[in-house]
From TrEMBL:
Boundaries of every AFP-like domain copy: 283-338
Name of protein: N-acetylneuraminate synthase
A Pfam family annotated for this UniProt entry: NeuB
Molecular function as annotated in GO: N-acylneuraminate-9-phosphate synthase activity
Length: 338
């Protein structure tokens, strides 16, 4: 069990819908919900791709959210303008939560360093961009690496690149890079496998609907949960269909901590919280006033709550015996009575 509750990251992505005011409202919503951090993405369409209308630059027609859209157009619509980064970071600091980003090229790292970003996240599609990972790691900041689509060799290579560049604080996120992700493809059982293989803390970057999957991830040892957030799914937006609304984010904060608290230890037996309950287990009691010489019967001795008398299983031994002294109703039955 981790020594602290899961770290909750609210991913803004493109859910600002092209409005700085909405972006700042999302920061406020994340802070109000109790999230630990708000995350954005630092790229432009030109730093990610080129404006070419060719099928290789086009999402499949059947894509659930962005079918048929060209990469350049999608990234133009979804990106967070670089001159918004300062106001977003400032608002987060004012609200007492961390603000950080996923850089997608060296110019993004340069910008984020000027803003004193406290950490960096490597997006799933950039896990094979080892030069980018080394550059982010060379800042000395904590590095979070998302692993959607990656095999163990690619994950290990990314971790080694970060370590080789000086990173000492690395968190790896189990991730399924489909949007939205069907729960059955989340494969939470790989969280402890990754933890054992990498000897690093493991979290979850989740794109399923709702909060059930990330809560379950906590039981498998996830120390960080990242979920996309929006002010309202009905407002639309590039990621709104699989994003949490503010009330849902607040529920995730509360329930993930509750799930973490519930992990406890491997001890089997009564806990401190059960001490009162132990008093009210059943035992054998005199349930009717009796006098010495009277036989023990099912009418004057029964198994009732609380404890104090003989174990319930002793009933077969005491039935038919004789009371050695008077006993009032409510007296625990003990061996010296019969």
């Amino acid at each position: 069990m981790s020594n602290s509750k899961p770290y909750i990251v609210a991913e803004m992505s493109g859910n600002h819908n092209g409005s700085l005011d909405r972006a700042l409202q999302l920061v406020d919503a994340a802070a109000d919900a109790g999230a630990d951090a708000i995350k954005i993405q630092t790229y432009t369409a030109d730093t990610l791709t080129v404006d070419v209308k060719h099928p290789r630059f086009q999402l499949s027609k059947g894509h659930e959210l962005w079918g048929g859209e060209y990469l350049y157009d999608l990234y133009t619509r979804a990106h967070t303008p670089w001159d918004w980064h300062g106001p977003i970071f400032d608002r987060a600091r004012e609200r007492g939560i961390a603000a950080f980003s996923s850089p997608f090229d060296p110019t993004a790292v340069d910008l984020l360093e000027k803003l004193d970003a406290p950490m960096y996240k490597i997006a799933s599609s950039e896990i094979t961009d080892l030069p980018l990972i080394r550059l982010a790691a060379s800042t000395g900041k904590p590095i979070i690496i998302s692993t959607g689509m990656a095999n163990l060799r690619e994950i290990t290579s990314a971790v080694d690149a970060a370590k080789g560049a000086g990173a000492t604080d690395i968190t790896v996120l189990s991730c399924t890079a489909s949007y939205p992700t069907p729960p059955e493809f989340t494969n939470l059982r790989r969280i402890p496998v990754l933890a054992e293989a990498l000897q690093l803390p493991i979290g979850l970057s989740d794109h399923t609907l709702g909060i059930g999957v990330p809560i379950a991830a906590v039981a498998f040892g996830a120390v960080l949960i990242e979920k996309h957030v929006t002010l309202s799914r009905s407002d639309g937006g590039v990621d709104s269909a699989f994003s949490l609304e503010p009330a849902e984010l607040a529920a995730l904060v509360v329930e993930s901590e509750r799930a973490w608290q519930s992990l406890g230890t491997t001890s089997i037996g009564p806990t401190d919280a059960e001490k009162e309950g132990l008093r009210f287990r059943r035992s054998l009691y005199v349930v009717k006033d009796v006098v010495a010489g009277e036989p023990v019967t099912a009418e004057n001795v029964r198994s009732i709550r609380p404890t104090g008398g003989l174990e319930p299983d002793a009933i077969g031994t005491v039935l038919g015996r004789v009371f050695q002294s008077d006993a009032a109703k409510g007296t625990p039955l003990t061996w010296d009575l019969v």
